[in-house]
Amino acid sequence: xxxxxxxxxxxxxxxxxxxxxxxxxxxxxxxxxxxxxxxxxxxxxxxxxxxxxxxxxxxxxxxxxxxxxxxxxxxxxxxxxxxxxxxxxxxxxxxxxxxxxxxxxxxxxxxxxxxxxxxxxxxxxxxxxxxxxxxxxxxxxxxxxxxxxxxxxxxxxxxxxxxxxxxxxxxxxxxxxxxxxxxxxxxxxxxxxxxxxxxxxxxxxxxxxxxxxxxxxxxxxxxxxxxxxxxxxxxxxxxxxxxxxxx
Length: 247
Hints:
With 247 residues, this protein is mainly α. It folds into 3 domains: 1-57, no CATH class; 58-184, hpI Integrase, Chain A (Orthogonal Bundle), CATH 1.10.443.10; 189-236. It contains 11 helices and 5 strands. It has helices at residues 6-20, 37-43, 45-53, 59-82, 86-91, 120-142, 163-178, 186-199, 204-211, 216-219, 227-237; strands at residues 24-26, 32-34, 97-98, 103-107, 113-117. Strand 4 (103-107) and strand 5 form a beta hairpin. The longest helix has 24 residues, at 59-82. The model is unreliable at 40-46 (pLDDT under 50).
């Protein structure tokens, strides 16, 4: 069994991060280069040569890093935009997606179908992933088997459906990279979706429909009001709110 090289793994991870941030790109000729002079000054020409010599920066690795970065961005944007459960995100297929209309059909609990709405950032992220990322992942799967192309939207690095377990792993990895605290989970995106809608004035029953809740009581869990919102409402509505202290 081959031993993994921690130094090589760390360097490869740095390449993936740089790729995700647009620091390392492929030009029209297919050569791997820095995106601009600023990136070159920060990372150094020698570093690129060293990585290339160690076979850490290759076209196939860069393509994979690009595809995974595009996929992960689309995952987060879609989960938050539509307030999807992780199981709904994992099972969403290409036929369920209407990018031009900003809609995605999902099967929730009890196999109840509903329409999730996706805004402009999520549509842009999905479009980039479907055009430039997913085909790379599909090709990796096709090279290893004669199976038909998966219908699921989100695929893993082997070109197979990512699945609930894979989604949890990737989202937790992104959480740790972002420096977010323990306890932040895929459900946090769904919770934020509902809370932000209600804070923005959305009707509770509309939020219930978008979340796919059978009971309104379940949706009411998200109706807690922040102290800042309470104070703002008080100051805006109470006739004595602005009265000076001691006046």
